[in-house]
Design goal:
The chain is α/β, with parallel strands linked by helices. The strands form three sheets. Strands 2-1-5-4-3 form a five-stranded antiparallel beta sheet. Strand 11 and strand 12 form a beta hairpin. It is globular.
C-alpha cells in the first residue's frame, strides 16, 4: 500500500487496566490493526506511572514499520483521563485514548481526543472510536472544518518540514531548564543518551519532542525519540544506542548508568556524568533567548535563534575552525556522519552571506541621510527590524555604530519612522552588547523621551521595552535611576487611558530596578493597589503583586487559580506518595515560574507543606523536595514572614546537623538557608541562632568527603552573606 492509499489516522484504541490482564487495549478500531509494538506495550505507555495524581495527561510514542518499499514511521499520542468515582474499584475511572498516525499533528490531535474521551467515559467507547477514526479520515484532506461529536472543529494543518512535529513547545523546555538548556544542546550535538525525568508525562514528552529543535538544522533524531519509557520495557535504555527519552518514575533519575545527560524536572536542572560546562558565548546566547521568551517572543522566533546559533557552530566545525571550549568539547562533531549529512542538504553558507549583506546594506542606506526619502525611511527601518532575528545580526549592527544611527530617527517628524526606529532598538536591546550600546551617548535619553512624550502608544511601548531590557543590567539600573525613570514609569502606570502592555512593561521595569537596588526609596503603593483592583490582565496583576511583595507592602487578596488549588490539595493529600508526587509537581511549576510562589503562599499552601516536613523523615524524598520548594518561597517577603513565624529556619539549622541524612537532603536544606541568608530578617534569625558557626562546622564535616562535598557549596554561599553582613 502506497503512502497515498494509507489513512491519515492509522488506528484508534482505548487503554485501561484489567484486574486479570493488567494494562490492556480493551477496544481497537480497526479491530484487526497490527504493529511491531504490541498492544501490551502500547497500553503501558498509554497508562503512565504516576498519572493518577493528574486529572488528565498525554504520552507519546513512535513506531517504525517495514513497508513494502520504504519504512513507515508512525507517531502515537495517548490522552489519559482520571475521573474520580467513589464506586469504582480504585476510587477512580482511568482510561486512555490512543491515536496512531504517520502525521505528527499533535496539536490537532490534542483538540479532538478530549471530545472523544467524553464519549468513552459516557460508555460509548466502541462508537466513539469508529466516529473519531472515520470523521478525521473523511474530512482532513477535503475540508477546512468537520463536525465531531456534535461540535464544529476547524481543520488547520500547517505543512511540516522534514521530521518536524506540530504542537510541541521549545519555549516550555527552555522555561524549565533555563541556562542549562545549553547542556542539552551539547548532548544532542554529541549524540549522547539524553533522558528527561519528571511529571506530568505530557510535559516530559514535550521536552523529548522539542529537544531536536535545539539543533534544528540537523536531522536523524526521529529514530532516537522515545517520549515515554517505563520499567516495564527498558530495551531502549539498555540498548546501547543514543536516545532522547522521557520517564515519570524517579528511579530513572537515580540510575546514573542509564543516561549521559539528564534533564530533571525536580529542580529544573540538567546534569552530565562528565561535568560538561557551557562557554560564555553559549551563556550569552541562551540569556538572549530567555530574554526574548520573557517578552513573549514567538515559538518560531525562539526556534530561529537556536537554528542560527547551531548553523554558525556547524559552519565552524566544517572548516575545523572551532575555538576554545567548543573546539575541545565538540571535537567528535568534526568529521562525523551527522555533520556530513547536514552539509549535503544545507545551503547555510549562502543564507548567512545574504543575511550579512542585507543588514549592512540597510545600515549603509540609513547612514546616507541626504538620499533618504520620507517614504523610504520607515520602509528601510521596518526591513532592518525584521532582519535582526538573532544575536549575530544584532552584534553586527552594534559593531558598525548602528545604534547611534537608528537613534537619530527617534526625533523624526514621521510617526511611522519613529515607530520602526524604536522597534529596531527594541530588538537590539535583546542582546547584552545591544544594551551597552544603548547606554552610550545620548541614545538612552532619547528613548526615555519617546516614552514620556510620544503620542503613539506603540512607539512608547517599544521605548518602555528598551528600558526594561536596560534594567536587567546593574549599570543600566544605575543609569535609569540617575534619569529618574522610576517616576516616569509610575506616571505611565497611573495614566488611565494607557495600553495594558505598556503598563505591564513599566511595572516590570520598576520591579527590576528595586531588585537591583532594594534600598531605593519606595513610592506610594496605594496607586498600584488601585491599578491592580481595576485591571483584569493576569500578567499585569501578577507583576504588581510581586512589586508590592518586594516592597513589603500589604498584599491584596489574591485568589489562587484552579491549577494552584490542585497543587495545594495534592500537597495536603491523603498519603505520603500523593504528597510527594504533588510537591514534586509544584516544585516544577515554581522553577518554571517563581512568581507562582505568591499564589501558593496566599492560597495557604505553606501550612500543609510545613506539616509534611515535620512528619516525613529525612530519608524520604518528600523532605528534601519540600526544602527545595521553601528555597524558592523564602525569596518572597510574604513567604519569608510565614516561614520565620513557623520556625522553619531553626528547623533547617537542626536538619543541617543530622549526620545520618543523605547528601541530597542536606544539599536542599543548605540551599534553603543560603537563600534565607540573602534577606535581612531571615539572616538576622540565622545569626541569632549561631548560624555562622554552625555552617562552618557543617563545611568542616563534609568538605573532605568526595561523595558529599557538593553540599558545602550552598553552605559557603550562605556563610558569605552572613559574614559580609
Amino acid at each position: 500500500m502506497g503512502a497515498k492509499d494509507r489513512k491519515f489516522v492509522h488506528s484508534v484504541s482505548i487503554a485501561e487496566f484489567d484486574q486479570l490482564a493488567g494494562d490492556t487495549l480493551s477496544k481497537k478500531y480497526p479491530s484487526d490493526f497490527q504493529l511491531s509494538k504490541s498492544s501490551e506495550e502500547i497500553a503501558h505507555i498509554a497508562l503512565p506511572e504516576g498519572a493518577h495524581i493528574h486529572e488528565e495527561d498525554f504520552t507519546y510514542f513512535t513506531v517504525e514499520e517495514q513497508g513494502k518499499e520504504d519504512p513507515i514511521f508512525y507517531y502515537g499520542i495517548c490522552y489519559f483521563r482520571n475521573k474520580k468515582d467513589k464506586d469504582a474499584r480504585r476510587g477512580a475511572v482511568q482510561k486512555s485514548l490512543v491515536l496512531i498516525s504517520e502525521h505528527p499533528y499533535f496539536g490537532f490531535f490534542k483538540r479532538v481526543l478530549p471530545l472523544a474521551m467524553d464519549e468513552v467515559m459516557a460508555g460509548n467507547g466502541k462508537k466513539a472510536l469508529k466516529d473519531l477514526y472515520e470523521t478525521i479520515n473523511g474530512n482532513v484532506h477535503k475540508a477546512t472544518s468537520m463536525r465531531l461529536f456534535k461540535k464544529e472543529m476547524e481543520i488547520s494543518l500547517p505543512k511540516l518540514k522534514h521530521e518536524e512535529v506540530e504542537g510541541v513547545s521549545l519555549i516550555d523546555l527552555i522555561k524549565l531548564f533555563k541556562v542549562d538548556t545549553m547542556i542539552l544542546w551539547y548532548g544532542l550535538l554529541l549524540n549522547r543518551k539524553v533522558l528527561f525525568v519528571g511529571q506530568p508525562a505530557g510535559a516530559v514528552g514535550n521536552c523529548c519532542l522539542a529537544a531536536p529543535l535545539l539543533v534544528a538544522p540537523l536531522r536523524g533524531f526521529r529514530q532516537k525519540l522515545h517520549p515515554y519509557v517505563s520499567l516495564n520495557d527498558l530495551s531502549v535504555i539498555m540498548g546501547g544506542e543514543s536516545f532522547i527519552a522521557g520517564a515519570t518514575n524517579p528511579l530513572f533519575e537515580s540510575r546514573t548508568d542509564w543516561w549521559d545527560v539528564l534533564g530533571s524536572f525536580t529542580g529544573g536542572t540538567v546534569s552530565t556524568k562528565d561535568g560538561l560546562k557551557i562557554t560564555g558565548q553559549d551563556r550569552e546566547h541562551i540569556k538572549n533567548v530567555i530574554s526574548g521568551i520573557e517578552d513573549h517572543r514567538s515559538e518560531d522566533w525562539v526556534r530561529n535563534q537556536f537554528k542560527a546559533y547551531t548553523e554558525r557552530v556547524l559552519a565552524q566545525a566544517e572548516k575545523d575552525a572551532l575555538k576554545g571550549i567548543h573546539k575541545k568539547v565538540l571535537a567528535p562533531l568534526c568529521g562525523s556522519t551527522m555533520l556530513a549529512d547536514y552539509l549535503e542538504y544545507s545551503v547555510e553558507d549562502q543564507e548567512e552571506a545574504v543575511e550579512k549583506q542585507t543588514t549592512l546594506s540597510l545600515l549603509a542606506e540609513l547612514k546616507d541621510v541626504e538620499h533618504l526619502s520620507v517614504l523610504s525611511k520607515p520602509m528601510i527601518l521596518r526591513t532592518l527590524s525584521e532582519q535582526l532575528v538573532d544575536l549575530q545580526a544584532i552584534e553586527e549592527l552594534c559593531d558598525n555604530e548602528g545604534v547611534g544611527v537608528i537613534a537619530s530617527f527617534l526625533d523624526d517628524e514621521s510617526s511611522q519612522t519613529r515607530k520602526y526606529a524604536t522597534n529596531v532598538l527594541a530588538n537590539v536591546a535583546l542582546s547584552i552588547k545591544g544594551q551597552l550600546s544603548i547606554l552610550s551617548g545620548s541614545v538612552l535619553s532619547r528613548i526615555i523621551d519617546r516614552l514620556k512624550n510620544d503620542k503613539m502608544t506603540n512607539v512608547a511601548s517599544a521605548a518602555c521595552y528598551c528600558l526594561y531590557k536596560i534594567s536587567t543590567l546593574y549599570i543600566g539600573v544605575v543609569s535609569l535611576i540617575d534619569r529618574q525613570v522610576v517616576s516616569t514609569m509610575v506616571d505611565t502606570i497611573r495614566r488611565k487611558d494607557q495600553d495594558i502592555l505598556l503598563k505591564t512593561r513599566a511595572a516590570s521595569t520598576i520591579l527590576q530596578v528595586y531588585r537591583f537596588c532594594p534600598t531605593l526609596p519606595r513610592v506610594d503603593s496605594a496607586p498600584f493597589i488601585e491599578e491592580w483592583q481595576q485591571s483584569h490582565d493576569l500578567a499585569f496583576r501578577s507583576t504588581i503583586v510581586e512589586l508590592l511583595d518586594l516592597w513589603g507592602s500589604d498584599l491584596p487578596q489574591v485568589q489562587p487559580s484552579e491549577k494552584m488549588r490542585h497543587h495545594i490539595a495534592g500537597v495536603a493529600g491523603p498519603d505520603r506518595e500523593t504528597k510527594t508526587q504533588h510537591t514534586s509537581y509544584l516544585l516544577q511549576a515554581l522553577v518554571a515560574t517563581p512568581s507562582f510562589a505568591l499564589e501558593f503562599v496566599l492560597g495557604n499552601g505553606l501550612e500543609p507543606l510545613f506539616k509534611n516536613m515535620t512528619e516525613a523523615p529525612p530519608s524520604e524524598k518528600l523532605s528534601w523536595v519540600s526544602y527545595a520548594v521553601l528555597a524558592i518561597i523564602v525569596d518572597f517577603n510574604v513567604g519569608r514572614s510565614r516561614i520565620l513565624a513557623a520556625g522553619m529556619v531553626e528547623n533547617a539549622l537542626l536538619a543541617m546537623e543530622n549526620t545520618n541524612a543523605a547528601p541530597i537532603y542536606l544539599l536542599h536544606v543548605t540551599r534553603f538557608l543560603e537563600v534565607a541568608c540573602q534577606h535581612d530578617n531571615s539572616a538576622q534569625r540565622i545569626a541569632e541562632n549561631d548560624g555562622a558557626s554552625r555552617m562552618i562546622q557543617f563545611i568542616r564535616r563534609y568538605c573532605d568527603d568526595r561523595q558529599a562535598a557538593a553540599v558545602c557549596i550552598p553552605a559557603l554561599g550562605g556563610l558569605r552573606y552572613v559574614i559580609c553582613d
